[in-house]
Amino acid sequence: MNNDVAFTIKRIGFDENYRPSDNTRITTNFANLARGERRRENLRNTLEMINNRFNALVHWDNPEGRRYSVELDIISVSMEVGAGGHEAPFQIIEILKTSFLDKQTGKRIDGIVGNNFSSYVRDYDFSVRLLEHNKHQSTFSIPDDFGVLHGNLFKSFVDSPVYKEHFGKPPVICLSVSDNKVYHRTDNQHPVLGVEYQPNESSLTEQYFKKMGLQVRYFMPANSAAPLAFYFSGDLLNDYTNLELAGTISTMESFQKIYRPEIYNANAVAGNVYQPNLKNPDHSLTQIVYDREERSQLAAEQGKFAEEHFIKPYQAMLEQWSSNGSL
Predict the structure, then answer these.
(1) How many other CB atoms are there within 10 angstroms of residue 245's CB atom?
(2) How many CB atoms lie within 10 A of CB 122?
(3) pTM here?
(4) Rounded distance, CA 206 to CA 142, Å?
(5) Alpha-carbon dihedral of residues 202, 208, 214, 219, nearest 10 degrees?
(6) Which residues contact 218 (CB under 8 A, 6 or more apart)?
(7) Per-residue pLDDT for 2 more than 50?
(8) Which bin fits 68, alpha (ψ -120 to 50), beta or left (φ > 0)?
């Protein structure tokens, strides 16, 4: 498969000076924060939240809670289809890469790539294709090949030479829990990830990410209000160090406190049986401006953009590539 596509990677630092590029999905967490009059204050406060949470999680040999600083890079992945494909490669994925500065030793330590996950093709699948498939239908259903192309694109990137050149471990993607499911606390506990929860049923998101080669486990770290969903391949608990896992938790829990405060900044902690509630009034707001209404409205626009500029122009080639690995 990788002989028929070409991936390129661009890396930009996510700091208080960050400005989204023209082709960044504007509903992406980090892009939403970086717009408006309070953009610099938003970014500075978000990074402070991440650093404070990371140092709280990595508390050993860190008595003052200021030993580490989390550094984030936005990884933009573009794809060119086949030899002599379209002139401007289409950006298919944006993810985050963490690293850590140990201010005690002066060393920089690699973290996990993945974390936040943005995809124009996923926008198309959920906001365009799925809606069109169920239009005028009496019962909800999913297309037989739903998520197959997107999954093959993701797996092809992770298996590509360019991924292996830049990253030493498979990605881990961290999402919020679903308000449509009930989660049950187990006795399993990890020193950094915290207490494991298990859902009462599978979800469409789980099925979609499974086509990307990823499985999921749910953990609630210490002093968190709710579990997080960790999507990964391999062995989540043994393939990654405690510092790496803490970097993902601190980054993505901070984003979720801003974006979903009803769940992750709730004033009551998830119990043994937990169902998230996006209408929960008993929560606190951060001092960070985030336009949630705009984010939800723009998902369909971004899905249509992917349809117009990627899916339709190269549909035949993409379907052939996805089905048998050749163009």
Answers:
(1) 26
(2) 25
(3) 0.92
(4) 14
(5) -40
(6) 177, 183, 196, 197, 198, 199, 227, 228, 229, 230
(7) no
(8) beta
